Amino acid sequence: MKFRASGVIPAALMPFTQDMELDLTTFRSHLRDLASVKGVTGICVNGHASEVMSCTEQEQARILTVALEEVGNALPVIGGVYSESSIVAAQHAKQWQQLGANALLVVPPAAFGKGAQLRPEMVMEHYQRIADACDLPLIIFQYAGAQMMAIQTLTNLADTIPSIKAIKDYCGDPVAHEETVRQLQNSHRKVNVLTAHSSWLLQSLALGCEGILSGAGSTVAALQAELFEAMKDSDLPRAREINERLDIPNKAFYHAPMADQHNRMKEAQVLMGRFPHAVVRPPLMKLSTAEIDGIRAALAKAVMLNH
Ligand SMILES: N[C@@H](CC=O)C(=O)O
Fold this sequence. Notes:
Helix content: 40-55%
Family: Belongs to the DapA family.
Protein name: Dihydrodipicolinate synthase family protein
Number of domains: 1
Bound molecules: the ligand N[C@@H](CC=O)C(=O)O
Radius of gyration: 18 Å
Pfam families: DHDPS
Strand order of the largest sheet: 1-8-7-6-5-4-3-2
Structural class: alpha/beta
CATH superfamily: Aldolase class I
Organism: Comamonas testosteroni (Pseudomonas testosteroni)
GO molecular function, one term: 4-hydroxy-tetrahydrodipicolinate synthase activity
Order of helices and strands: EHEHEHEHEHEHEHEHHHH
């Protein structure tokens, strides 16, 4: 299945059983749900939304294999490559290719947050090792805050590593985001920008981003796809209307502490009748009843509850 770095690519959640094991039955039905949404062009697993940091290497391999079995005939599957070690990340890249992944999302190691701006060679080495270990299209993951890479580092990556085809941009800064679109997507070496700015998608898509790769897609992929379509058609009134609808669940998912963003989406899946439980692995903690009630109210207001 050929990966095209465009359109709406949800990052799947990873359901766990009550004893915190992978719940692969629910995962399979989650993947089928996502694949059935009109406008979805791929599915990403083993990203932050899948709680990749708390899954073992064997579990990550299993998650990718199950995703490929379940939806790999219909859509490209993008596997997140995450390790604190560039050497291990490169081993994963090789293994994920052998398992059949169609592209890789390079999840930034925590070390980037302690010096990627001052020592961009860390970033270059991490990506180069991954690129050398496989032949798959790579997606840069630009993260907000301390992990954020300088625009010069992004253009150096694009110029040095031909297999880089896209960037998932979650820089959180509209000025930096616009510059990323300008310098990567609208330059001679075209690297598509897939926005992850789920809470300001309309503004982001107005810059011309070629797609959306977002954890919120796990839960609001249909609305994201409608918004994407409206923006492609330059139908601003329609886009504004969809944006208003998206704003309600987005406000319930994206607020401090941001560590809980996907935790909240899991609770939403339970409230929508899709997941049996919203179990997260520590250090993430179960949300309070008051917060779950707030998510329920938001979903009801957005007409996302069937009951
Ligand atoms: N909020 C973004 C970035 C997360 O890591 C997303 O979920 O895609």
